[in-house]
Amino acid sequence: MAFPHTSSFCARISQLPPLRTCIIDVSMSSRQDSRLGLRIPSKPQFPATCNVSHGSTHIQRNSPRKPNFIVGASINNSPSSSKKNLVLINSAITVTFAVASRVLYKLALVPMKDYPFFLAQFTTFGYVLIYFSMLYVRYHAGLVTDEMIALPKSPFMAIGILEALGVATGMAAAAMLPGPAIPLLNQTFLIWQLAFSTIILGRRYAFNQLAGCLLVAGGLVVAVASGPNAGQMLSGVELVWPAIMIASSAFQAGASIIKEFVFVNSANRLKGRSLDIFVVNSFGSGFQALFVLLFLPLLSNLKGIPFAQLPLYLRSGSGCFINIGGRAPGCDGAPLLPLLYITTNIAFNISLLNLVKISSAVVSSLAVLLSVPISIYVLSLPLPYLPKGPSLSSSFLLGCVILVSGLVLFNIPQPAKQASK
Q: Which InterPro entries match (predicted)?
């Protein structure tokens, strides 16, 4: 935003305000008396010249002349435009990591096809160690302060228990629901986010943003869940299981909004300093791992693993994961593929939380939803260990068009009074 031009003036030099555009000439007359000439740049609206001499001050109007020296100040960059560009760049990075994470997870399950529960728990508890290690390094580097560490832990505890409940209820419902119904019901996540951000954060959304979110969710449903038997996908299923899957989405949406709340609320406590994302990642994942550990007997039974046999299962899973010498039967591709997935998924989680920090939880969810059809397309191509991909239908292409249309509609610029707060 540029500063407005000032009007012409003539005053004592000691009373000149800052950021005025002027010309200062110092000269000696032939009679050897010094004169300090102060001139406003020659423009139609600034015709006067103010001369200050020994004992008097007088104004004379001269014809405009080209100034010798001009001092000016202006600002051309719009902060809102810069922030929007930053959000777009981070959204593109998040989508890229999300696609890579989804594809590599599918590849990681090739050697770990008998141990998906082990891989899930390994990432849950492994991330705690990785995130706290990064937090330790950043703390000693001065990037994380004592004030950040001293933030109240109750929001992080709420994040942990909500994410653990989301995992537990999601697993329970997924075991009883047909595959195509799961992505359809998961789209309630975005609706829950809109509701929670309005209630908890007091945000208000313009009509185009609400319509855009619904188009994104609807497009994903068309792309993923369409088919000749789509109308009967929930036939014969008790209503309690779709309700539990919807509740799972609500738990996870609530956790994402609380993360955004932590960033917003910490600005006052930290006196305007930005909260480091590894503080949120570390404590959030730590409490999540704690509550997952408490739910472990339930989770193992939901996956068909009796709790008494869980130690044996974990030992076998670790042997397949490590795959020393490549001699473990049926574990070809380990440990390279699982490690690639874990590394990419960590980068995705960091980029996703950073996007929440600079924008909102809803914007980050839209970026993740965009990655779903892209991932499906990539997985339809011949890949190592997955030579035959599924063919894509016309419904998939139609769903992608609807999804992208929703993203465009969501990002249509609005007047400030109508924009979300």
A: CRT-like
